[in-house]
Amino acid sequence: MTAPIPRDIPELPAIPGVARLFPSSVPAAAVVTPMRRPLAAVCRLLIAALAAGGVTLALLLGSPARVLSHFTIQSNILLAVVCLASARRAWTARRPLPSAVTGATLLYVVIAALVHHLVLASATAPVTLTDGPLTGWHAVANHVLHTITPAAAVLDWLLLTTPDALRLRQTAAWMLYPLAYLGFCLTRSELLLTPGTPARYLYPFLDVEQYGYKSVLANALLLGLSFYGLAVLLVALDHLRPNLVRYRAHHRPKTGFRLRPPVG
What we know:
About 55% of the residues lie in helices and about 0% in strands. It is mainly α.
């Protein structure tokens, strides 16, 4: 038996306003499945090979302990590791590395290139990565590490990465490594090398014996402000540059879900 339907049903009050669909806060990366990017993987493998080859050549031509102490060598080692990891992620359709890591790597290799070409190459006694004049293989290693790999890293950033990834809040953290490197250079020269040792200081603008700590710290402050300005410039350019990355849809809808025909 069923209960009788009441004759008088009270009217429900109308819901004020018009129903609206609110935008979802889920990022697009969480919906769209990453795709394999073989071109980016191959290019980054080549950059990693160039950086590793230049570092290896510099180690064979000079004193390994001194060569590994240079900012250029350390930044190129980081570039090789990051490009190798990025190539693997692009080949296996995994999400890219965090922008804080890739942005810092790009900044460091660009700093090494600019300091060499604008400061050291024009000095009366240019600093070399190897124990010898810049001829033959010495010149090859110098050119690869200071020109080719930084240019390749910039091209990879412009052509093979999506824009709007770098953030201004990341720039302060990027300055920690140059600051730590300054402390390493001064400590190395004071504790490991005796006064009067040839090439005691890795860079002429850090020569405390010739200029004193006041001038050296002033030079370091000027360079640090320039590095931070360069970091801010990279972030600004990252938000202004066009998106040159082109993904293939592989016949998938924009939502990232695969549509299937109804069963039955």
